[in-house]
Every structure is written in structure tokens, then in C-alpha cells.
Amino acid sequence: MRDRSRSPIRIKRESPESRGSHRRESYGREHLVRVKKELGARPIRIDSRGRPYKDEDRPRSKKSGSAIVIGNDVSSGSHSIEPEKENFEPSGLLATETNTRNGVVMKYTPPPESRMSPVSWRLYVFKPDPEDPKNTQVLKTIMLDKHEYYLIGCDQRVADIQLFHPTISKQHAVIQHRLQDNKRVRPYMIDLESTNGSFINGERIEKSRYYELK
């Protein structure tokens, strides 16, 4: 026998449109709550031992120690972080880097009047006859028209004109094309403070001084 004292339970069928709208509304509220929580997040504060502060034991006074702040809040802490000041003093590293060749620091730096020669100069390498010093033989002809200067030495990494002799230094001397006051480009020779020195027509030249080649 059916008990009529209880109220009948009625099940209402829900339409697909209403189910979709309900889901959208619930998703919207959850999304808003999550965004609100993310926007209301506080920066993490860490004590001197690297442990994060809790809300109840976080120091309230500005004088009670310093705190490292991770985030945008940099006002806390007794020690202020000073930004590194800009230093415009020359360090010399750029000059050293630009004055190198194949990893070797060059002893010579070309002057401002260094130019390419419009005239083709030649350097002849002679070999004297041991029996007759006046009789010489041309071993090699070097053209001096491809560069502004030519480094003479025994270091194969940097020398443009390589001479292998016990009296030749690694960076011995330089033949430099220079622009003169009369707008002419002439070759000069300079000794790079070599051990045994450089000679022009049998006479030893001074170190670190230009001598015109005629």
C-alpha cells in the first residue's frame, strides 16, 4: 500500500540549452575566483636562513632584521642594494684585442698617416758571394704594394717578410708607407727595438724611429 503522507518526488528534465548555460556560468565564477586569487598574491619574503616567512611570524617592525624580497616589493630590508655605477674609464682590453694578429700581441701600431702606396715598390733579397763580396745573387723579390706596412721578423704567425737567422727577432722591423706633407706616399723603415738592430746601407739606425727609404 502506498504511503500518501510523503510528498511525491518529481524529476524535471533539463533541456540541453539550460545545461550549457549552467556550465558556462559555473566556469565563469570559478575563473573569476582563480584570477582574483592570482591578482591578490603577495610577494614571498625569505628570512636570513632561506626560509619563507608566515603571516603570523613575519616581522612588522622595519628595524628587526633585513628580508630578501622576491617580487616587485624592494622597499623592505635594512640594507639597500646600490646599483652598479657605470665606469667609462678605458680598460685597455679593446686596444689589446684590436692590436693582435693570430693571437699574438703586435709590437707595432700603424700611424694615422699610414697609406697604400700608389707606386709598386720592390724589396730584393741578396746573397753575397763568400769569395767575392761585391758579387751578389738575388734570391727573392718581394713586392711591397699589397699592404700599408710589412712586418719583418722570424715569427711565422705575424711576420709578413719572414727571415730565419739567429740575429733576427720575432718582430724585428717594419717597412711602412706614409703620407708626406706634399701628398706623396713614401716607404719608411722603423726598428722595433730588436736585439741586434737594423741597418740601412751599412749604418745602424736608431730604435723606434722612422727612416725614409730612397
TrEMBL record:
Q: Where is this region: Disordered?
A: 1-87
InterPro entries in the cross-refs? Cell_Proc_Reg/RNA_Proc, FHA_dom, SMAD_FHA_dom_sf
Regions of compositional bias (Basic and acidic residues) in chain numbering: 1-59
What Gene3D superfamilies would the database entry show? Answer: 2.60.200.20
Q: Which residues form the FHA domain?
A: 150-205
Q: Which residues form the signal peptide?
A: none
Q: Which SMART domains match?
A: FHA (SM00240)
What name has this protein been given in UniProt?
FHA domain containing protein
The record lists the organism as Babesia bovis
